[in-house]
Design goal:
Blueprint (H helix, E strand, L loop, with lengths): L1 H15 L5 H10 L2 H38 L1
Helix pairs in contact: 2-3
């Protein structure tokens, strides 16, 4: 239960994270287009998801492996 709650909190808060690097922000601010800024933010969020999924999968595999060893 607690692990599921933690997962849901991370997923919900990552959906609201809108960050940019300084160079990208400067380019977008000079253009003035909000559609481009929103597209850039969505792309950054999309690219940010995969490292977290990869690390989460590795941690899950380690957890599952230790649970099988302890139950024998």
């Amino acid at each position: 239960m607690k692990k599921g709650l933690i997962f849901i909190v991370f997923v919900l808060f990552s959906a609201f994270a809108k960050a940019q690097c300084a160079m990208c922000r400067a380019v977008i601010e000079s253009g003035g287009s909000t559609a481009e800024a929103e597209g850039l933010n969505s792309g950054i969020t999309y690219l940010m998801i995969f490292p977290y999924l990869l690390v989460g999968g590795i941690i899950y595999m380690i957890y599952r492996g230790t649970q099988k060893k302890s139950s024998n």
